[in-house]
Structures are given as C-alpha cells and as structure tokens.
Amino acid sequence: MRREGARHPSSGTSVRSAPSPWHRPSKGKYYFRFSYRGTVVEVTIRPGHVRGEFIELARKEGRSAEEETRLAALKREMRDRLVPLAPEDVYDAKVSRA
C-alpha cells in the first residue's frame, strides 16, 4: 500500500490522499484518491457526516491536552455513527481508468 510515496512491499496497492485532506474545494471537505492496477477511485464523504467541531479541532495547530482528548472523543463518536451505515449512504465515489 502506498500513501504519499510509500509503497507496501508485498501488495503493490497504492493509496494517495489529496495534497490537503482537510479541504479540496472542487471535491468537498474530505477527498481521497485510491489507485490500483490502472483503476482510480475518488471518494468524498457526503456533507453532514463530519461535524464542524471535529473539523475545527483537527485543523488547529498546537492543541492542548484537553483539546486532544476532545478530538479523540469526536473521532470515536464519528466512527460509532458512520461504521454502521452503508457506504453508499456516507460516501460518493467515482471509479475510472487511469
């Protein structure tokens, strides 16, 4: 698996996020691009699934210990909300050939 230039030694799979995973205006707030053997999948999380407080804390530099604790709690809360949902209810995906 590859993320920003690192390659998984056995699978040959590559994964690359957009230069800024926090914001890509033309694609939405969260944009990920995966490629494998000539197939490219671009994925965005639909609006409303990522809460404003999470985005604000995740972007903040120099978070305090309390803010780190809150961010961890928000991550768990988001996981608990999103994991039970069907992927098509959370993500928009576009598949293409490279």
UniProtKB/TrEMBL annotation:
<protein>
    <submittedName>
        <fullName>Uncharacterized protein</fullName>
    </submittedName>
</protein>
<feature type="region of interest" description="Disordered">
    <location>
        <begin position="1"/>
        <end position="26"/>
    </location>
</feature>
